[in-house]
Amino acid sequence: MRGLRFRRIEHGLFALPALGFLGVFFFYPFLEVLRFSTWRWSGLRAPEPVGLKNYAELFADPLFWQSVKATFLFALWVLPSFLLLSILIALLIEGQRYERFVKGALFLPGLVTVGAASTAWYTLLAPDYGALAAFLPVPAWDQEPFWAMAMVVAFTLWRYLGYGVLVVSAHLKAIPPELVEAARVDGARPFEVTRYVVLPLLRPAVLFLLVVGSVLALQSYVAVFLLTRGGPFGATRVLGYFIYELGFENFRLGYAAAATVVLLALTLFVAWAQGRLLEER
Amino acid sequence: MRHALVLVIVLAVLLPFFWMAYAAFLPPEIVYSGDLRSGFGFTLENLKKLAPEGFWPRLFFSLWVSGAVALAQVLTALLAAYALWNGLRLWAVFLFTLAIPAELLLVPLFGVLHQLHLLDTPWALVLPFVASPFTVLLVFQAMRALPYALVEAARIDGAGEGRILFSVVAPLVFPNLVAAGVLAFAAHWNLVLFPRVAVGERYWTLQVWIADLTRRYPADWGLLSAAALLSTLPLLLLYLLFERKIVETFEGSVKG
User: Are A115 and B108 a contacting pair at CB < 8 A?
Assistant: First the structure.
């Protein structure tokens, strides 16, 4: 048998491929973005250092502030509905014969291709060409900011609801049946059992989903790209999409890098704040 | 009441799938009439129209790239998870990367790929995804459920670490490896924005191509649905095959 120290080195070597690739394609870009953000750079010609000018311009850019607002609005829509629906559905299917089937079905949208999914949504729900437009009054979500946001929110919920239900359900199963039993024996009605026994015990699940959900809300812009392209009038141009547009449609990569730094700082702050929240539970 | 509500929710969630499967075989007359009530019909026309648009080579290219990424991710994750399980104190590093979604790094990743002269090569689609903290997490959770005595017993029998990992531990977590691989495959298969910026049209993945198709033919439900259906099929098959294990693996990651 070889020594512990030798084994430690071996384990370090095992972790090396993962760490190496994460180093080159995660940590290195993560640091480089700071440098990029001080450049004026189109991606085609050589970059030109401009100091902190990008940041000054960014904080004076009304489009930036509009997209900050859109991001928070999006999070404000998505998070509560995500939590409520996840809890509601998990409670509805708990212990039913079809529980596993429903979970499987709800999980499916998260796995299928976004491109295909948004194509299906688009052909089904487009206000002008959509298949449903012939039967139902489909709101003009390509023209009205409110409905455009509703559409992006609905699509995001559709994709991730299965995950939320899975999380809540896993915590539901961990509740000792004796607790529910005891409350019942004490004369609590089913509604009261849910309200005063089950829901408080779901607090960890809610907090966990809140953490996952807010990181998701900050990053999620693929739906925006596929469904609304930030429109109408920038109503759904969330920060992630704002960055994409700046970098790869307006070819202002340095400026986009500065916006990325702001979004990264925001994400890290939210993750940190919620990490604290989780520890306190 | 409860059952009806569940039924409505499930139907609403599955509606886009039913629609995709239905519209893919709709005859063009019905599509162009713009009214579904104008009749029923079944045709393979839409599927045939995909070939001249260049669908098939894209499909195989995407299968190839995403498959390679999934394999590589599972392998790097298996190695790293074993190291973590044996007490390597790098958990914080992986947790940190987990908190930052890769989508946020689109701009700097583009810059780094530019520096490495990888832009517009198939490598740009593969190398950045060889290691994923999420896959490491999934495999690590699966290992933690095993008794560590297994490893100790194998060590006493004189097996080296590589041997223990590949002949003792890997077979035991194999179902989880498959599930993690399917999830890795799905995540890569679903990328739209990254391939769009990292490579030119030559190496576009299927998803980018479909997003582009939707822009070019916004009103041709039949063609779009056929493309969407066929591009979903590989994932759908994988999911149906491994559904139980995938859902369980996810539940495992949640409990930890």
Answer: no
* Residue A84: predicted pLDDT: 92
The two three-digit tokens of residue A108, written as one number: 């499916």
Of A17, A28, A126, the CB nearest to B112: A28
- B217 shares contact with chain A (CB less than 8 Å): no
Q: Which of A239-248, B69-78, B168-177 has the highest mean pLDDT?
A: B69-78
Instruction: Quote the domain boundaries for residue A228.
Output: 57-280
Distance CA B111, CA B119 (A): 9
**Residue A97: φ, ψ to 5°:** -65, -30
Q: Does B35 touch chain A (CB under 8 A)?
A: yes
Q: Which residue has the higher pLDDT, B197 or A234?
A: B197
pLDDT band of A280, cuts 50, 70, 90: low
pTM, entire model: 0.85
In chain A, residues with a C-beta closer than 8 Å to the C-beta of B219 are 129
Q: Is B214 at the interface with chain A, CB within 8 A? A: yes
Residue of chain A minimizing CA distance to B188: A113
Q: State mean pLDDT over A93-119.
A: 81
User: Closest-CA residue in chain A for B237?
Assistant: A112
Helix (H, G, I), strand (E, B) or coil at B27: coil
Q: Domain with A248 in it: what CATH number?
A: 1.10.3720.10
Chain A touched by B147 (CB under 8 Å): no
Domains annotated for chain B, with CATH where assigned, are 45-255 (1.10.3720.10)
What's the confidence (pLDDT) of residue B253? 65
H helix or E strand, kind and range, residue A81? helix A62-93
Q: According to the model, what pLDDT value does residue B73 have?
A: 94
CA–CA dist A40, A42 (Å, integer): 7
In a domain, A139, yes or no: yes
CA distance B210 to B58: 10
CB contact under 8 A, A113 and B207: yes
Please tell me the total count of domains within chain A.
Answer: 1
**Residue-level pLDDT at B252:** 66
